[in-house]
């Protein structure tokens, strides 16, 4: 809360101007007029000054109505002989009306001040005996409305500039806040996608393989060892990925990766995990060399999610995995002969696979086919 200086309050302003006027009246300041059309006692002048000082209470919220209400008091003071205290209060009321009034009322007052100056000049030229006298009259009268109007216009202009800069700063701050929220939401979506594709994929494989191992009555020891080896590989991979993600969250800039991202060169490990989960996987892969890192990672995660969904929704099914490059486009495809894959058509897995394909400018198609369920991603290797 800002502290407001008391002398800027309309009450203090009115009290000070009334007190100064009374002092000027008491010392009979030379510029106090005498011998008007309707000369009156000094107490009448004090009453006029008091009325105008009371009207100054509205100099901030009702400056224009206060100025209009003061016009009769101006006329009374002029009839008794123009006095300096009333002129000072009138100038302050004119200043407040131009400064605190509406834009339209300020423009009207500026026009009226210009008309007053032109009228004064014409009257001085007509009534005075020579040009020198006319000029003296003009220079003596015109500053009375000109100075407060000009001063108020300058203060109003500076105030409007300050308000415009403040509004601009608020707008920039709001834009920065929206950008920050968008960045946070994008980072959250990226983290959710990585958690689903990486950690959830490994844990799903562990759960499926453990369930298959528990269902064996008298299983082949070699099969048991293969499944347990795959469970361990998935557990270690989950821990590694989780440590890397925690490291990223703790990093200052968020760009220091503690481990290298998964690539298609690790596809054999992914296929072994899928086979240990019960899928009969047939692979036909020809991984191109020097793939862009983003395309390489997206292709690997899409294959990982597609195989995880196949093992989860179509256990024991046969799955064909294909990786080929054609016309500067990397095509990865997983086709399984189970119908259970359709259960995940609107799930999180399909959303994350679609987001990964779109992030590198590709497309993803997922849906039923002649054999069962197909996931096909086309990722551009080169492009704008």
From TrEMBL:
It catalyses: ATP + protein L-histidine = ADP + protein N-phospho-L-histidine. The lineage of its organism: Bacteria, Bacillati, Actinomycetota, Actinomycetes, Pseudonocardiales. Gene3D superfamilies: 1.20.5.1930, Histidine kinase-like ATPase, C-terminal domain. InterPro entries: HATPase_C_sf, Sensor_HK_TwoCompSys, Sig_transdc_His_kin_sub3_dim/P. Pfam families: HisKA_3. It comes from Actinokineospora iranica. One of its GO terms (molecular function) is phosphorelay sensor kinase activity. GO terms for cellular component: membrane. Residues 187-252 form the Signal transduction histidine kinase subgroup 3 dimerisation and phosphoacceptor domain. The keyword Nuclease does not apply. The chain crosses the membrane at residues 12-31, 66-88, 108-128, 135-153. Keywords: ATP-binding, Coiled coil, Kinase, Membrane, Nucleotide-binding, Phosphoprotein, Transferase, Transmembrane, Transmembrane helix, Two-component regulatory system. This is histidine kinase. Its EC number is 2.7.13.3. It comes from the Bacteria.
